[in-house]
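Sample 3 of the quickstart, ligand FE2/S2 (inorganic) cluster:
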Amino acid sequence: MEKEKRFTESGTPLPDEKFRIEVLPDGPYLVYGNPPVQQEILTQDEEGVSWKYAQGHSYATTENPTALCRCGHSGNHPYCDGSHTRADWDPSLTADNVPLLEKAMTYDGATLQLSDNPDYCARARICMAKHTAWKNTIRSNKPEARENAIHEATFCPSGRLKILDKETGEYIEPPLQPEIGLIEDPQKKCSGPLWVKGGFAVDSPDTAYERRNRITLCRCGASANKPFCDGTHIDICFNDQLPIPETKEKETEN
Ligand code: FES
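Result:
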């Protein structure tokens, strides 16, 4: 069966075609192009709410492709070690391929418009920080609220939230390079999805998934919206057992 043509979300960079990911129907993600892979550790603001990421350890992708775990059961995260053949998990790819924004709700504010498709929520919670992205969008005639709304939407790793500048009519997207983050969430004592940045092509044998600047792929094996993360990793306390550095080496900037 021929695949449908790939959609590309507005504001998505088109990186070198070597950066792509194949989702094997019963197994891992095959990552092509040797992108950097590193931990992205959710860190909190002074009020204890998620606000940024700190970069943790890096992991080599010397093989082309490099197989990264999708089932959550590897004994050698972030890599696949073949555990998916023995583990009790459902690899079914259940996500539809309707462009994310087509099913998004929109919230119209003074200078910004927020789009929100909760099916893709990775529960990073940055959107909840300073009065929430939704309320800040409504009040975006005030400079501080506008700045916070943009931060809260553009630091959403999954792209559930997108924010449009009403004056230019364009989405505000962070300039992300092709790389893969391993989200770690010490506050919830769990690990999160693969944060695929910078417009990778993601394909299964049947589907050319929409190309987007920010994508989160499930690596706990429990999402109901595979291959995408739906936040279930928090409910099942997924832990990749990777060491997390105590000192934050460098904060990720969008
Ligand atoms: S990693 Fe988020 S649901 Fe699996």
